[in-house]
Design goal:
194 residues, mainly alpha
């Protein structure tokens, strides 16, 4: 019953965030705004760097002492139990879309268009809030190492995705976020639970 309520809330939030886009709200941020060799190189190298950082986090942050608490994480649990794989392919993707819509699409657009902040400041604020949003990991895992990773990694991912958002639009941000985080969880599953 708890999972049904959770998935229902995720679905409702997703719909509420998507509707304004179809009404044309900030649709200029939905599409590519700037595409050149530098943007593509930053995208490729940034993506590779985040995959490498994910591997470093997997090896040096998680260990036999603290990996037991991460079993409760929905994606890792779905991999372990081999049940509810629809969560990984549907609801986890929806969660990544929700996070990118809130912390990139709406936050940055509002800070730039309504508050009249410079793009760099808007991205920094959005990344900071995105990082602080992940403090919930403390309440789930009560582990300082996991908390620090979930504060630092999202901040830098937010900076990177902020740049990608302002140049390539929201879709690449969602794809990057989804692949990087799913890759981390899958590698943790393979390393500790397979």
């Amino acid at each position: 019953m708890e999972k049904i309520r959770k998935y229902t809330l995720i679905s409702i939030t997703f719909i509420l965030l998507i509707v304004p886009i179809f009404l044309g709200i900030y649709n200029e941020y939905f599409f590519i705004r700037e595409l050149d060799v530098n943007v593509v190189l930053i995208l490729i190298f940034g993506f590779i760097i985040f995959l490498i950082i994910g591997k470093i986090v997997e090896v040096f942050v998680y260990n036999d002492e603290n990996i037991g608490v991460i079993k409760k994480q929905d994606v890792i649990y779905a991999f372990i139990s081999k049940k509810n794989l629809v969560f990984i392919w549907v609801f986890f993707l929806i969660i990544m879309i929700i996070e990118e819509l809130i912390f990139r699409f709406y936050s940055i657009a509002i800070l730039i268009n309504q508050v009249q902040l410079e793009a760099l400041v808007a991205v920094f604020i959005s990344s900071s809030v995105f990082s602080i949003f992940h403090i919930h990991t403390w309440f789930s895992y009560r582990n300082v190492r996991i908390l620090l990773v979930n504060l630092i990694f999202p901040f830098f991912l937010g900076l990177f995705n902020g740049y990608i958002f302002l140049t390539l639009g929201i879709i690449p941000c969602i794809v990057i976020h989804y692949i990087i985080v799913l890759n981390l969880y899958y590698n943790l599953y393979k390393r500790y639970f397979k």
